[in-house]
Design a protein that fits this description.
By secondary structure, the chain is an alpha/beta fold. The strands form five sheets. The protein has a six-stranded mixed beta sheet, covered by helices on one side. The chain binds flavin-adenine dinucleotide (FAD). Flavin-adenine dinucleotide binds next to helix 1, strand 4 and helix 5.
Length: about 450
């Protein structure tokens, strides 16, 4: 068989966060004609800090006015900048800016905007334009329906219907909250908030707070809140068995097991038998995938936070390569992974790299699901790729003829993880992997 011909397609990208802009870049590099749709008026997605919170602090009311970003004011990255950045565009220190190795969120916003400026990506983006419907047409092409969004978020009547050969979904997955189910919560009189709507500690002043969760952001937020709150009680399914323990270094923070029940008199009871009268429950319990604009007859569904079926977390076997998703895996190294996913999508769309047959892709997905099941892994962890994040990225890289993830980057991620485990309070300020930083910078000189 001869080499496949390279075709240039019209491709719609939904979202101008990190995934959408790197997808835009890679698709254009591969010769496609790209339009990036973005509801907001800036590039950066999650990294555009918004001090406003939603009208429903739990984020459950579908008619609430939505705020996209979940950033809190004090947020610093949880990855060192050298390993966090795109491989083709290192996240290096710029004069006059936040020069910390784990910088604050504004530095990431600036980095993404530098990336967009240096690769002239802004021209691809249609700002203040929300995609509200994506539908496959009989001829296999895609109808993308979008509307202009007014400055205050209200819609005005400008609606566009356009046909594309491909749609790449890059809409982000940290906006639709998941909350913990708590027995008795309906009669419990306190206030509930999801971490999506956490910004600063002040509203928690002098309050007794139960914070549910143990992710990196729950750890940050509990420390942030402890500066103002009267008491912070962390409830975690992974807390060690045994009695409640006070957190070392804090006189107002305790670690409990999971919540058993909440009661009319304001009490919250934990599985370890302890109980506290609580003012606020803060759910740091993660998010759910949500694709309200996809009209694809349930060919792809979200079931217990499994988006599927998706071949390699990207292409629905029955709809690929026309429809693809960037950024579905979590516990990944996001930006470099988005970059590789985008490269693969771009060269599959151009025909330079072939996908397996629909049957083969479906069989691959099924055998992946069977393995998860055999390992006792609940569906909601389908896209948690922590244990094979490097293999996954290396596989993508190999598919598009790109080198595997740099050895220093792999070692740096592991070193950071170990450092976090041993110095949870201070891993952003003290580390031992100086030799890896040097190796990274040596590598960056070749970019
Ligand atoms: P987003 O950044 O969410 O961007 C999606 C974009 O799509 C948005 O601009 C949105 O307006 C737009 N959009 C959505 N729907 C539509 C539509 N229908 N039409 C048009 N536009 C639409 N990652 C790291 O690498 N390091 C970190 O330290 C780190 N910390 C994090 C801390 C928090 C609190 C959170 C929530 C995430 C963190 N992440 C971190 C992960 C982070 O989500 C990714 O870095 C990245 O922002 C995800 O990029 P994305 O482009 O997939 O989505």
């Amino acid at each position: 068989m001869g080499a496949p011909s390279r075709q240039s397609l019209a491709v719609a990208v939904i979202g101008a966060g990190p995934a959408g802009i790197v997808a835009g870049r890679e698709l254009r590099r591969e010769g496609h004609k790209v339009v990036v749709f973005e509801t907001g008026d800036q590039i950066g997605g999650t990294w555009i800090y918004n001090p406003d919170v939603e009208s429903d602090p739990l984020g459950l009311d579908p008619s609430r006015k939505k705020v996209h970003s979940s950033l809190y004011e004090s947020l610093r990255t949880n990855l060192p900048r050298e390993s966090m950045g795109f491989r083709d565009y290192p996240f290096v220190i710029r004069e006059g800016r936040d020069n910390r190795r784990f910088p604050g969120h504004r530095e990431v916003f600036h980095y993404l905007n530098d990336f967009a400026r240096d690769f002239e990506l802004r021209d691809l983006v249609r700002f203040k334009t929300e995609v509200f419907e994506v539908e496959r047409m009989k001829n296999g092409r895609w109808m993308v329906r979008s509307r202009k969004v007014g400055m205050d978020g209200d819609d005005d009547p400008v609606i566009m219907n356009e046909v594309y050969d491909g749609v790449v979904v890059c809409k982000g997955h940290y906006t639709e909250p998941r909350i913990a189910e708590i027995s008795g919560i309906d009669t419990w009189p306190g206030k509930q908030i999801h971490s999506h709507n956490y910004r600063v500690p002040e509203p928690f002043r002098d309050q007794v707070v139960v914070l549910i969760g143990s992710s990196a952001s729950s750890v940050d937020i509990s420390r942030d809140i402890s500066k103002a709150a009267k008491e912070v009680h962390i409830s975690s399914r992974s807390a060690p068995n045994g009695p409640t323990t006070r957190q070392p270094g804090y006189d107002n923070m305790w670690l409990h097991s999971a919540i058993e029940s909440a009661h009319e008199d304001g009490t919250v009871v934990f599985h370890d038998g302890s109980s506290v009268v609580v003012d606020i429950i803060l759910h740091c319990t993660g998010y759910q995938y949500h694709f309200p604009f996809l009209k694809i007859d349930d060919i792809v569904t979200v079931d217990d936070n499994r988006v599927g079926p998706l071949y390699k977390h990207i292409f629905p076997p029955l709809l690929g390569p026309g429809l693809s998703f960037i950024g579905i895996p979590w516990k990944a190294i996001p930006f470099p992974m988005f970059e590789l996913q985008s490269k693969w999508v771009a060269c599959v769309l151009s025909g330079r790299v072939a996908l397996p047959s629909q049957e083969e892709m479906m069989e691959d997905v099924k055998s992946f699901y069977r393995k998860l099941e055999a390992d006792g892994c609940p569906k909601r962890y389908t896209h948690d790729i922590w244990d094979n994040k490097f293999d996954y990225s290396d596989w993508l890289a190999a598919e598009c003829g790109y080198p595997p993830v740099e050895e220093w980057r792999k070692q740096m991620i592991l070193a950071t993880w170990k450092n976090y485990a041993s110095r949870p309070e201070n891993y952003r300020n003290e580390w031992e992997d100086h030799h890896l930083v040097l190796q990274a910078h040596k590598d960056f000189q070749q970019c």
